[in-house]
Write a structure and sequence with these properties.
CATH architecture of one domain: Sandwich
CATH class of one domain: Mainly Beta
Radius of gyration: 34 Å
Structural class: alpha+beta
Number of helices: 18
Oligomer: single chain
Length: 474
């Protein structure tokens, strides 16, 4: 047979089916059924869930001096937090608060890993309550898996349907509560039951409700693994002395199943009995025995269940535990390392600064703007005149009468100035002011003057603002 004939008889490899190629590129999500776990860290997660959800759902209903205690009134541009009333001019406090929040995240991550993710992240908190509802209706992990494998029947429809109805109603109430921080919640409830909600309020109730339902009811660990950026850059904040959840490989390997009364040393086995319970309780479905992974949210469910297994086997606890990389290798820990001290110092300084700034905050603003149509004007009497526009903002909750004065140059004369200003609560009062002075008192072309305003009924409400008085060139 010639070479040409042999080549003709050779067949080209069969192309891989399109669906198999797709399957290799886009793995289908496998549903995770976290087993219920009890223990110290589980109790802490439940406590955090109760406190945080209690605050979220309860705070809008608190009353303070005849109004909602916490209300962000966007149309009125007022933000009520108990006895404080903040305005857009107080944006500085919000910026400082966000900086403190970011620094707190860095600090606690450097100290103890993903504490935020495991105990306080909204995704974790709402997923916990959703899984609790799921277990109450469908049962624990084995019952849920069995139910999902059953063909659709009346029992499955009833359980699945009732679960999703409860979760959807709970999610919509979550959206309602969210909008209640921006619209008085009692008024919002009355308008909702009378079908009189505005378009934006309706949109945000539905949007936030469906977002909660989708994230905590369906996507769950997918949000943590794929959507949350924190999982990707957390390792930059870890070091060898950061507390993380770890499996003690030196103690646990080689793993293997055995009876409780078996001699593990005689069998040549470590403490891990390969029960896989640490995998079954993990809400993201990872195996902590493979080492620290970015999918780990630090919930410590594997610690609780492993300690329970160790107790039943008569072994020491801590096969899976909070520890450091240095601790696993028997090296001394360094809790007070430089980055921790820097984070702690900055955090304390910024927090103290925010508390001091708010405690010394004066609910009064005075802005002075020079008239830009001309540098100055000479009157028929030979005086030099500058024009200013004063903006007085009363950020207090009651009306005040203010007295205005100016200093900085001798014998200044106010023109078109009212003796006292009555400014209502929340009012922005604009007042044009002319100041005249004899040029013999001007030693240079640009002079600094100071406007001072003070409430006649509350001397602690006082503000100063500086501006320039421009006269003839030297």
């Amino acid at each position: 047979m010639s070479d040409v004939t042999a080549q003709k008889k050779r067949r080209a490899p069969e192309p891989e089916p399109a669906d198999e190629v797709q399957q290799s590129l886009y793995a289908k999500r496998e549903k995770i059924y976290p087993r219920e776990v009890h223990g110290t860290f589980a109790a802490l997660r439940v406590l955090a869930m109760v406190v945080l959800l209690g605050l979220y759902y309860g705070v809008p209903w608190l009353r303070w001096e005849g109004r909602q205690a916490v209300l962000f009134d966007l149309p009125a541009r007022k933000f009520f937090i108990f006895d404080w009333v903040f305005w857009p001019q107080d944006f500085f406090y919000l910026a400082l608060l966000l900086m403190i929040a970011a620094l707190s995240l860095f600090f606690f991550t450097a100290v103890a890993g993903r504490l935020w993710c495991g105990y306080a992240c909204p995704q974790t908190v709402w997923t916990e309550i959703f899984m609790w509802v799921e277990r109450k209706i469908e049962g624990d992990r084995p019952q849920q898996m069995k139910l999902d494998k059953l063909p659709w029947n009346s029992e499955k429809v009833l359980k699945k349907g009732s679960k999703h109805v409860i979760l959807l109603l709970f999610s919509l109430y979550t959206g309602f509560t969210f909008v209640g921080y921006f619209t008085p919640i009692d008024e919002l409830g009355a308008r909702m039951f009378s079908f009189d909600l505005g378009p934006w309020e309706t949109f945000w109730v539905i949007f936030y409700g469906l977002a909660t339902y989708g994230n905590a009811g369906w996507m769950r660990e997918q949000v943590c693994i794929y959507m949350c950026p924190y999982a990707r850059f957390q390792s930059a904040m870890f070091d060898k002395d950061t507390l993380v959840i770890s499996y003690d490989e030196a103690r646990g390997e080689p793993r293997g199943k055995r009876k409780r009364t078996a001699d593990r040393q005689g069998l040549g086995l470590g403490d891990c009995i390969d029960c896989t319970l640490c995998v079954q309780v993990c809400p993201t479905g990872i195996d902590i025995r493979k080492g620290l992974q970015y999918q780990c949210i630090g919930c410590a469910a594997c610690v609780d269940v492993c300690d329970d297994v160790m107790d039943k086997m008569g072994y020491d606890r801590g096969l899976v535990r909070y520890t450091t990389e240095n601790g696993l290798k028997g090296r001394p820990a360094h809790p007070l390392r430089p980055r921790i001290l820097v984070y702690a110092t900055l955090l304390l300084a910024m927090t103290a600064g925010l508390i001091y700034a708010i405690s010394q905050r004066i609910p009064l603003e005075l802005d002075v703007i020079r008239d830009r149509t001309g540098l100055y004007r000479e009157t028929s009497e030979g005086l030099v005149e500058n024009v200013y526009n004063l903006k007085v903002i009363n950020m207090d909750e009651r009306e005040h009468v203010y007295r205005l004065s100016a200093s900085g140059l001798p014998e200044m004369e106010f023109i078109n100035r009212k003796g006292e200003l009555t400014v209502a609560a929340g009012e922005v009062y604009n007042l044009p002011v002319r100041i005249r002075i004899d040029p013999i008192h001007l030693t240079r072309s640009t002079n600094e003057i100071t406007f001072h305003i003070e409430a006649t009924d509350a001397p602690e409400l006082a503000r100063e603002a500086t501006s320039r008085f421009i006269g003839p060139v030297d």
